[in-house]
Amino acid sequence: MDLNPADDRFADLIRADLGDDVLRPATERYLEEPRNRFAGHIGLLALPRTVEEVAGLVRHASAAHVPVVPYGGGTGLVGGQVMAHGPAPLVVSMERMTAIRAVYPTENVLIAEAGAILADVRAAADSADRLFPLSLAAQGSCRIGGNLATNAGGVNVLRYGNARDLCLGLEAVLPNGEIWHGLSRLRKDNTGYDLRNLLIGAEGTLGIITAAALKLFPRPAAVGTAMFQVPSPEAAIELLALARDQVGETVSTFELIHRQGLEFLTEVLPDVRQPFEVPPEWSVLIELGLSAGQSPSEALEAVYQSAESQGLVSDGVIAQSEAQRSDLWAVRERIPEANRLIGSVSSHDISIPISLIPDFIRQGADMVSALGPYRINCFGHLGDGNLHYNVFPPLGRYRADFEDQRGPVKRAVHDLVHAFNGSVSAEHGVGRLKVDDLQRYGDPAKLHAMRAIKAALDPKGIMNPGAVLKV
Amino acid sequence: MDLNPADDRFADLIRADLGDDVLRPATERYLEEPRNRFAGHIGLLALPRTVEEVAGLVRHASAAHVPVVPYGGGTGLVGGQVMAHGPAPLVVSMERMTAIRAVYPTENVLIAEAGAILADVRAAADSADRLFPLSLAAQGSCRIGGNLATNAGGVNVLRYGNARDLCLGLEAVLPNGEIWHGLSRLRKDNTGYDLRNLLIGAEGTLGIITAAALKLFPRPAAVGTAMFQVPSPEAAIELLALARDQVGETVSTFELIHRQGLEFLTEVLPDVRQPFEVPPEWSVLIELGLSAGQSPSEALEAVYQSAESQGLVSDGVIAQSEAQRSDLWAVRERIPEANRLIGSVSSHDISIPISLIPDFIRQGADMVSALGPYRINCFGHLGDGNLHYNVFPPLGRYRADFEDQRGPVKRAVHDLVHAFNGSVSAEHGVGRLKVDDLQRYGDPAKLHAMRAIKAALDPKGIMNPGAVLKV
Prior knowledge:
The structure is a homodimer. By secondary structure, chain A is of the alpha+beta class.
């Protein structure tokens, strides 16, 4: 169906209905995304303050066949927040809907509006002596609505799940402008189809999330962090199983780090304090969150001892202070920044069945080295089977020299991932970057069902056109 | 759209395509359900052995506009498995697709066909030194496909989640006969709309689940079970919070028990060994699953001590042997049987925001006693906010005398649940029993979306017609 641009006449209709204050002049930042792979365009920028205003905007867009791009923190890495082609869209930014509407500590529930910054949601939980576990590098600027729309992951998925798993209910505006009042605080509610999970991960193509009921957790009484050297990815996987046998679900983080990442830090971020004199080929960052009365350093020490007796670790550092903890975390958290400074040929957010990861890493290395003299930084959320598998130019050369190689490298990596029954979109979403991948690797029956659902809920195709599904 | 019965001509078409062996004469048991509230009828019974046979059956049904009723263990309590009205359906029972296709202990994943009995799935996990935590009274006869189609709950939801939370991927036949090959073993996979969660809980109205990739967990090294007397439901809720502060996620069961349930046991199941001389008004069954090196009885003792100092418990029994554990569990698990023997006027599977439960229980008691001289047995999964709220005739009288009161009692209880922002369908599903409730209490925007999705995926309306959504 043909769409129309969000032009002056459309703006007048909105002003007449919703007042002058809901629209704003568009600025550059709504047209950019962190990796600068997409340049958006924009017809109109709206900053609604209530779900009713969001519904009003969507009703107008539906009536006028104007495309709508929901906008959170703008931190997405797959271009889901910028529309480059077709009629200039109405961008609906949630930045004025930032309230924490309620906290129910007894129920371990918090209700936040979609525009709330993730860090603020975490802080609000903290103030109620609770934990909201979603944690990722962009948490100072990403917004919870975007986290849900993309089913964000992060460093605590191992213990607490993805954004999807942390949501009990939603308030949302559907593509026809109807408001779904679904802010359930219930842990069990089987009343019909799971619209919540359908909107989560749909990246704004089936509606706009305006608020969410989120799950909180008890705050661990004590947190322990360590970095262990492991002889191989196999050993890392066995170490995780061993740790879980010993300390159960308290393992909240288990991140694999490759020497390449540590060398990148040395190269471009030399102020980052590294735990080992000589960067080990493989190491893991492990964190435990324990109940009262348990000692994290003793628990980590015990894990290390058992692992050492099985040859699963060769050296290790257990943080003895908050400062040491934060040093260890800095190693993991600043690797993406180092990656950006080095400049990748191609970056991949992939997941692989956990037991196949060692094979994948070996075959991937062979495959990439056959393509050229690249450096690979393979790191990430090993416990979830989610790797960030990034391919870089050789030392002394730059990504600009390899622009024409991005496509072939990406294709080769994604083909390998697919051959391993993996996913080419683990935690960042499909956005506009991976629309073709979804067509290529997706299950045909599922794609047919997705298209049918999209057509049923958004028959005019106004919601974030071009994201997830090819227009 | 008009549907046709699964008649002899239709049977011939199936035999010609799929052979003689896939069809069976229908027997009574496919027409019954445990509470005898629905009498089904049946045109044809099919017992497919492969997903391809299921797809063949659905393609024929789609072409001939014949209704299809997917059939698992037949243990559902809301009539989702029996179709009473309209043209006689094709019943597709999964009882010959019972294979455990694979177990991946390293990945904590098990792949089971839909017809696998829940207890067999649990046993297969056990054999791999893992836990599949879904556990409910019918586990000896219910099948995993039905558990997923209804998003079953049970006694371990508090720690491990509903059936939905325990599933990573599905293989399913969609209403057009296409096979969705979605048996992902991945923990993170954001490749398009969440078809998995859409089929889970759809009660066979959007397709037939034929196999599932299920999450496994480490087996707790030691399990501790106790029953504590609590002065009130408020105290029970505070006790749960206290226990979680002390022992974190290891609290796997937290069941509220009312004196009425214990008195029913005394009345009709006197062989059940009860832990307290005088049945307390309120008590809780609590279970911890701990890692190696922790003592369950010490942990429970510590919880009891702290709780006692805050006035949250007044007496308690901590199981000191496997026999004592099983005695405590028997008290909880045989209450439903006692309920059946007594015979309820009306039973309700409800959930309430946890902090509102004490108020709900008080107002519910007032409301029910205003309706008549009923006895209430209110018990269940307090940690999930899920109560089984069952209303019984006074001592010495029988449900048969109150048949005409079932409707008004149910309506009054459900109205109250709705006023408390609760759900009238917590863990048993909607089936055919609660179709009207869904229309009455459901969010209109969500209902519209559900109807649009149903029409999009099943335009001929062949899949389990009359369940979940009114035809």
